[in-house]
Recover the amino acids of this structure.
């Protein structure tokens, strides 16, 4: 992280260009990272396996989190981490998203279930900060930032998942400018728990006579307990948890069925603008999910690497075995190296991509430069679905690969990697399935604007690649990357045209297109990483760290970037049978 | 299954060419399939989720299987299924492997944990039948076939997994031609349980003064209870279960640490030939694991398909929505179709490949034609690692895709697909990890014989493709398949040469090579499937079954076969950094 922040993305120059609440000198950045790491290692990681084993319990309407979670949460809140990116006016720390993704990645790596309680809270606070009226802000933000309250997003209903237009929860105006909320929401992360005295729900619901579909959705703030005049939590607000889900993973995160039975709600933002309000924070949340993929596979990588550096089986053809009776280290077997370097190739680039996208979000929020904001906005919109889907798909696959390195031990609970796989799986599903992300990318972010957004990104990549060509060690890589952007643009143009006559082409090509763009942007990140590595300087930590980066980068360009061709080949392949298929033939 | 058996592989002509213990008319084949299906649906499937939830329990040395397993096992054994492929001399039914893979796929689809108890027994019985002396056969085979006893394979030790040469368990000769077995085995499937009165372990161990490595391993039969003279189970034999593993999945299958504490063992086969004896049944077992991948993804496909045909979200661009306010079926969204057709493409071909390989095993066992046996042996050796690894890798991925079709519901236990994913994961690991399978394929089965085996398979494929070219509807597919075998052979020749100067190339290319061969053989299976479908005839079951097959086949050739290029491109890519990497750079 420090290497990327300081060397590749140069925060020492970047932060001063922003109009942030506080100065962030490089030393302070490092101090923050170390403090987060300490908390992740000492407070959260020790509860990861035990939390998975015991899970949350549901007892007569209340949810009990696993042993130790309450203390850990209090310690986390006391550290001020709940308000890390919050507005300083209400006690938030006003930190940039770039540091927040570091925090998030570490939380997910250490304890994904735990991470979701404060991270959903940040999302809710962000929406209130952006769209709530001053009175709502004054009443709730302070307690959300301090961790006294947590927050949730209540979107999904049994009949309404990917298609929010189908939601039925109603908001009936009362006489006092408040609303009576009635309906059932499902899959509500942290909908009920025992960590805090109050839980603040952001609920999507329909006002009477609102238009059908997504244009008739409004957002409401619905506290579990109504607030007393002095700001303390008071009377129950008819918000009831009906049950919690038994899930594949993230078992210590309570996934709740929430029943709103005439609960009092406060309108957030304008009527019928609920989806737009929700989407304010969607870019933040979806970026966060990318960090879950990176964090869990980072952890999985560490376990697999350590195992491969200790376990001896068979004789490697790579190293000199003469004079030794010992079996070789797993790490010296080519196929194990293939897995470890693939993880490395994805991890470093994936982390870089979350950092890169976070920086663009920071520009949008803190910059005074309108041109910079404009182009950053375009890139955030374009890259958010890529980070959400590509980083979580690779994250899951990489956890599976790391598990494979351990052989039979990978399947056993004690070793932790099977939990990684189960916990990583959800990130491909929630906050919009990865298929939905791909449709969002290709449909809304590419085809709808005739590829103008992607052209901005590709221009940036090509300019960077052109500059790298003057370095001998980067020439070939820059050339390969340029060829991949050529393929990307040529497919883009084809799809933009084709979509006019065949709208289904977007759905057919979406997942391939997202994978193609992900592979190319990872290549772009690797080129940036390699361009900023000065291999002559002394080793970092005495561990040949830079040489390791170079090897992993070589590997990415030699082996992994060739997926570009595959995704291009497959994008529209099978269009005929896909359209021809009839339901009764399945 | 019936379509493949009767139409594609034409068992009506095939079985009469074999010298089997009984005649198997097509009607009898169907009756057997229906009986297996009934048992799988009515007896085993109902225990699948409950078995997963409760798992096995370990209590003071004993293992308790989940509620209902004992009754289900008794009913399974009473049906004669434990001795399905067993030798009729000892009460086995002498059925061909071709029908056994049907049985196995259904067992795994219905209840993978349960399936392992009888399937490991079959493997043990097979080894005893092939290598045990008449006295051992007479004492044990009858009870294994009747299901009165179960069997295990005791290979793995804590320090010895993929590398069996490292195993330490000792066999010390006693005065009476028996041996005293001492050592600890781990990951022993069904090592201890409460289903039967006795458990027969086949244990790999070292005789005193035996050579180091795999050449000094012998196989011993070690019963949990010694047999009385009348064949009943008697005194304890110092075989102790130390604990059972907490695992990601197959939780109702007991995975045991087994301690042999001076247990009496009987030599099976010749001294120091233990590995060869074990490998007799390896081809059978590994083929069986392929059926686990197929079975679980078949089940997952059915759940995902049914969900997609019921759940409505969003508006599909494919179908005519005019005049309807309803959201479209998931099954009408292109990206959902992409997932379902990908499953279908793998499932049908994967099942066909297990059938095809089983038929070759049947030729080896039952044919009188020496030439046929010779070429079948070559193909079995070549295809076994492909079936084991490719079918289980695709099986796992396909379970994950099916889970994705269900969105959030896929992550919830009630819907069953998260269990499919967890249960399918083990098949990539046990019976030799899929990485080991790839090394076995490319190293032992291809490079070592200079590609002569693969040439036999490719010649068969190319001859078949050439015949198909005369059919208009198959011309393009046959041509594409021919190009893919060209790529396969050209890579093969390159690898055979390269391996002489760079032995590590085998390890670098192995997984890509296996995937390449898997993709090509699936294409071969699809061509056979399509060539045997007469699309003019009336619908089967009134469900447009044949049209569905045709669409899925089109899809395979249009979209999925293009992986050939990817696997060819990647086979040797990254060789440089893979070899250059140093452990301390990881």
């Amino acid at each position: 992280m420090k290497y990327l922040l300081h060397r590749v993305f140069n925060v020492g120059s970047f932060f001063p260009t922003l109009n942030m609440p506080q100065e962030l000198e490089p030393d302070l950045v490092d101090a923050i990272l170390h403090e987060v790491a300490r908390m992740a290692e000492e407070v959260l990681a020790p509860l990861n396996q035990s939390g998975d084993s015991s899970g949350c319990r549901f007892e007569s309407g209340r949810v009990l989190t696993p042993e130790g979670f309450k203390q850990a949460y209090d310690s986390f809140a006391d550290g001020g981490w709940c308000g890390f990116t919050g507005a300083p006016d209400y006690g938030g720390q006003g930190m940039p998203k770039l540091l927040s993704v570091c925090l998030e990645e570490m939380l997910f790596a250490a304890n994904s279930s735990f991470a979701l309680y404060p991270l959903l809270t940040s999302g809710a606070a962000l929406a209130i900060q952006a769209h709530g009226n001053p009175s709502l802000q004054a009443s709730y933000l302070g307690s959300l930032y301090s961790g006294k309250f947590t927050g949730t997003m209540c979107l999904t209903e049994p009949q309404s998942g990917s298609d929010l237009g189908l939601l039925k929860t109603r908001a009936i105006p009362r006489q006092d400018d408040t609303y009576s909320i009635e309906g059932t929401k499902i899959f509500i992360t942290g909908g009920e728990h025992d960590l805090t005295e109050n839980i603040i729900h952001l609920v999507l619901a329909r006002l009477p006579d609102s238009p059908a579909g997504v244009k008739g959705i409004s957002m409401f703030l619905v506290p579990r307990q109504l607030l007393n005049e002095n700001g303390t939590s008071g009377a129950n607000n008819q918000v009831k948890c009906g049950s919690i889900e038994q899930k594949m993973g993230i078992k210590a995160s309570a996934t709740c069925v929430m029943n709103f039975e005439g609960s009092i709600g406060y309108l957030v933002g304008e009527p019928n603008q609920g989806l737009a309000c929700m989407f304010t924070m969607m870019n933040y949340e979806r970026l966060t999910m990318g960090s879950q993929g990176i964090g869990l596979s980072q952890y999985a990588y560490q376990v697999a690497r350590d195992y491969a550096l200790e376990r001896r089986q068979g004789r490697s053809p790579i190293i000199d075995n003469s004079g030794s009776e010992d079996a070789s280290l797993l790490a010296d077997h080519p196929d194990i190296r293939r897995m470890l370097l693939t993880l490395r190739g994805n991890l470093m680039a994936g982390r870089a991509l979350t950092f890169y996208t976070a920086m663009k979000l920071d520009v949008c929020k803190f910059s005074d430069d309108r041109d910079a904001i404009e182009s950053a906005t375009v890139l955030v919109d374009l890259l958010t679905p890529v980070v959400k889907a590509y980083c979580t798909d690779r994250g899951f696959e990489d956890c599976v690969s790391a598990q494979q390195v351990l052989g039979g031990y990978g399947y056993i609970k004690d070793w932790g990697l099977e939990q990684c796989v189960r916990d990583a799986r959800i990130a491909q599903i929630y906050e919009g399935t990865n298929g939905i992300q791909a449709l969002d990318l290709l449909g809304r972010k590419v085809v709808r604007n005739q590829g103008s957004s992607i052209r901005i990104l590709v221009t940036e990549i090509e300019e960077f690649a052109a500059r790298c060509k003057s370095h001998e060690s980067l020439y070939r890589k820059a050339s390969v990357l340029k060829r991949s952007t050529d393929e990307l643009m040529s497919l883009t143009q084809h799809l933009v045209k084709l979509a006019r006559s065949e709208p289904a082409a977007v759905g057919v090509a979406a997942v391939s297109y997202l994978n193609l763009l992900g592979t190319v942007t990872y290549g772009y990140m690797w080129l940036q990483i390699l361009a900023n590595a000065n291999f002559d300087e002394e080793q970092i930590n005495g561990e040949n760290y830079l040489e390791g980066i170079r090897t992993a980068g070589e590997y990415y360009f030699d082996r992994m970037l060739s997926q570009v061709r595959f995704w291009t080949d497959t994008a529209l392949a099978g269009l005929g049978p896909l359209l021809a298929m009839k339901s009764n033939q399945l």
